[in-house]
Amino acid sequence: MLAALALAVSAVGAGLNGKWTGEVQSKKRTSTVTLDLEAHGSTLAGTMSLGKRGRGAGIKEGKIDGANFSFKVSRKKKEHDIEWAGTLDGDRIQLKQRGGKRGRAITLKRTSPPAPGEAAP
């Protein structure tokens, strides 16, 4: 029973693997958000990029719990971490910034398929 549960959690986490994109609106413009994700069991790694230049910030403290996940990224200009929480729903991710003044919510879509053998949920 525990082995089946671990396999199911691993399969959901593997569904996060790949490249995801979405748009976020600010007062001045619309910017593209890109996530490159790689799941390792209940741990999430990868990068998050904002804008055309696509300079990615490394994901820290990435955690996966079923279809839900969370991570932090550092902002160099302000020297603090931004926390994000998301939910995987097939080929979409609902991502929300935790805390802060903006509390942004973003819908991202898969732009690259999972690696062979890693079926999307």
Layout of secondary structure:
Layout: H1 2-14, E1 18-25, E2 30-40, E3 43-50, E4 56-58, E5 60-65, E6 68-75, E7 80-89, E8 92-98, E9 105-110
Antiparallel strand pairs: 1-2, 1-9, 2-3, 3-4, 3-5, 5-6, 6-7, 7-8, 8-9
Protein architecture, described:
- This protein is mainly β and 121 residues long.
- Helix content is 11%, strand content 55%.
- It has an 8-stranded antiparallel β-barrel with strand order 1-2-3-5-6-7-8-9.
- The model is unreliable at 1-11 (pLDDT under 50).
Radius of gyration: 14 Å
Poorly predicted tracts of residues: 1-11
Main β sheet profile: 8 strands, antiparallel, barrel
Strand order of the largest sheet: 1-2-3-5-6-7-8-9
Q: What percentage of the residues does DSSP assign to strands (E)?
A: over 45%
Coarse shape: globular
Structural class: mainly beta
- Count the strands? 9
Number of helical elements? 1
Q: Quick summary of this structure?
A:
The protein is mostly beta strands and 121 residues long. It is built from 1 helix and 9 strands.
Features:
mainly beta, 121 residues, disordered N terminus, single chain, eight-stranded antiparallel beta barrel, 9 strands
